[in-house]
Structure formats: structure tokens, C-alpha cells
Amino acid sequence: MVLLIRYGEIHLKGLNRPYFEKLQRQAIKRALRSFEHAQVEKGQGRFYVLGLADEEIPRAMDAVAKVFGLHSVSPAVEIEKDMDAIRQGLCKLAEEYMRRKGLEEATFKVEATRSDKRFPLKSMQIAADTGGYLLQNIPGLTVDVHNPDFRVYIEVREQCYGYVDIIPCAGGMPQKSNGRAMLLLSGGIDSPVAGFSIAKRGVELNAVHYHSFPYTSEAAKQKVIDLAELVSAYAGRIHLHVVSFTDIQMQIYEKCPHEMLVLIMRRFMMRIAERLAQENGCKAVVTGESIGQVASQTLDSLVVTDDAVSMPVFRPLIGMDKLEIIEIAKKIGTYETSILPHEDCCTVFVPKHPQTHPVLDKIKEAERVLEIDRLVEEAVQSVERIIIG
Ligand code: ATP
Ligand code: MG
């Protein structure tokens, strides 16, 4: 069996197309790196994965379905380019499908495409011929060209491929096709989804996580590593920078008004993220914030947070409701890890009444008592780098 992979938007990219296809091929190879004999070949507007054992197919399909830039994948059988072989090949596929689904009776349709114009029959003729053959040879089948229970596909290309199933992939654009950004990754529900969303458009991810040891535990850090791993199944390799944030939090707690604590802290997170972004070739900072979700995410608060850095800050979840975010988190498989009950550095030093309508000048004045540059520098120096995926 082979995997037949269709890709989407890179068709649109004109002269860049070979470059995008190269990235796409690399991403597929990477997703399949644990399959020793898998080979990824490029055909006309398709990729093919050869060399997989039949029992490896379901797992390989799962891995491929996570690769951004791909449209769909089908497990296909290679069939000899000969009408007799095609008839028999499709008959076998239809029988297997009915057996697998426990169907005694079903309606079907054959869909044929032919890109090899030397093949003697046109696609309509191939479909009519094989459809007739299936009707005669499989009891319980009837044709329904408008709304069939299942479709049997035959593509006559460099090779002939037959298949029944088409599994949708993640969509988006190929890994690393759109620069690199620094994701602020907490252990929560939102930031992994934000990372997924931005990586979906081909942005390579670095991530920064702030921890407040000993107030936050080793287990809390491990949870973030686990989340980064889950995101990297889609996003590719992620360089995770773990920064010790305890000293900064203590200083803010001691020296600044408590109702401003969260925002001053968030401004530090941004500054450190921007510094690490610059050092690592990232052109933007990404967070999981959405308007109004918590006090630090009112529009006024976001303006204050943004002011701390000059790099663009992208917030892909900005207009989403929590329930919508949760739905994506479940779909991409990060939700169960995100809800594990570990403390976050943000939850360690929370004031009772955080400001929701901060005034930028007042916040700036309050943080002036801190040695901002030195604290940022020390935090950046403390970074532990972990390569994920
Ligand atoms: P999440 O579910 O992502 O934790 P949240 O709703 O809990 O989000 P906040 O804790 O206010 O919101 O954090 C907002 C954003 O700030 C997060 O989405 C993340 O991008 C970043 N962030 C928060 N805490 C940390 C942390 N400890 N390390 C790195 N980034 C963080
Ligand atoms: Mg959080």
C-alpha cells in the first residue's frame, strides 16, 4: 500500500512553488521519521509515501494528517496500468470496504481521473467500465451517482492508484515557509492552541516558558515540555526556552502596587520574550490572549502589555470564546494535558483585585523603581534551552 497525499494552497504560490514543495516534502519526511523504510516521492500535484508495511499504515496516516499544508491523504493500492487489473483491483477495494463496514447492501460510484493521456480510455469510460464490472461481480451493490454510500476512486497517473478513503489533513501552509516566531507558552489551554494556529500558517515556533521555582514545581515544567511536544507534532521542532521568573516576581511584589502586579509582570514577560526572539531569529511574539478573558486581557490591559515591546505581538485567539478554544485544544490533543492541575507562575503571585483599566503612564511610573534592564538581562542569562521534537 502507498499513501497518496494531496496538498492545497501551495498551488497558488507561482514561482515559489518548487520551494514550497521542497519544504512540504521535508515536513512529511520528518513526520514519518520513525518509519524506517518510508520514502516520500513527489508526483504531479501529489506526494506518495512508499515502503510502509500494511500494519504501519494507520499510524503513518495519523502522522501525515498532522502535517500543515496538506489537504488530504488516502491509503491506496498500486494497480497495473491495464483495464483488467483495474477492474479486479477496484472490485477488491469495494469488497474490502463493505466487509470492513459490515455492509450487505450499498450504493456506490466509481470516480476516475486520468492524467496519463496515453491511456486508451478516457476517465468517463474508465468509470463506466469499472462501475459495470463492480455491479456484476459484487452482490448487494447498486449505482447512485448523486449520493452514493461510498465512492471508489481510480487515478491513472505515472502509476495507477485505487482507493476508497479520503482522510482530511490539517490544512494551512508548510512548516517553516513563513518565518519564525516566539510563542509564550504557559501550561494552560490557550497558548498551545495559539502556537498551533500560528504554525498552521507555516510559521516556525520557538517557545518561552516562565517558571517560578520553588513556587512552581518540576512537574509544572514537565507539563509545559509535554505540551510543546504535542504542538511539535504539527509545528515541527520547537526550541523551548525555560526562564526563571522568581526574582522578577518577588521584586515586583515587594516594590510595586499590588493591583498593578499582573500587568507589570506581563510587561516583563514580553520584554524577555522579545529579547529571546531577537537572539533566535524570530520576527514576532505570539501569545494565547483573547480579549476580556481575564483582567490582564481587557483591551486596556493588552495595550499596556504591548507597549513594553516594539516587535509585533500576534494573538491568534484574540476574538475567540473560551469554548471555541477548548474545542480546538481537544481536536489537536492538548486539552487533556493542559487541564492537569499544576500551578503556573501567574497563579502564584496574584493580587485580589487586579486592575482591569490600567493607565499606561501610571504603570510605567510604578515599574520605574525596578532595574528593568538588569532584571531582563539576568532572566535571559538564566535560560535553559530544550529542543523538542
Ligand atoms: P493559557 O491557557 O495560555 O495559560 P490564560 O487564559 O491562563 O492562558 P494568562 O495566564 O493571562 O491567560 O496568560 C496569557 C498568555 O500569556 C498565555 O496565553 C501565554 O501566551 C502567556 N503566558 C502566561 N503564563 C505564562 C508562562 N508561565 N510562561 C510563558 N507564557 C505565559
Ligand atoms: Mg495561563
Ligand roster: adenosine-5'-triphosphate, magnesium ion
Number of helical segments with 4 or more residues:
14
Strand content of the residues, in percent?
A: 15-25%
Distance between the termini: 27 Å
Radius of gyration: 26 Å
Main pleated sheet: 9 strands, mixed
**H/E series:** EHEEHEHEHEEEEEHEHEHHEHEHHHHHE
E-strand count:
15
Shape: elongated
Mean pLDDT: 94
Unreliable segments of 5+ consecutive residues: none
Structural class designation: alpha/beta
Portion of residues within helices: 40-55%
How would you sum up this structure, described in words?
- With 389 residues, the protein is an alpha/beta fold.
- The chain is 41% helix and 21% strand.
- The protein has 14 helices and 15 strands.
- Strands 1, 2, 3, 4, 5, 6, 7, 8 and 9 form a nine-stranded mixed β-sheet that branches.
- Strand 11 (204-211), helix 6 and strand 12 (238-244) form a beta-alpha-beta unit.
- The two termini are 27 Å apart.
- The model has no long low-confidence stretch (mean pLDDT 94).
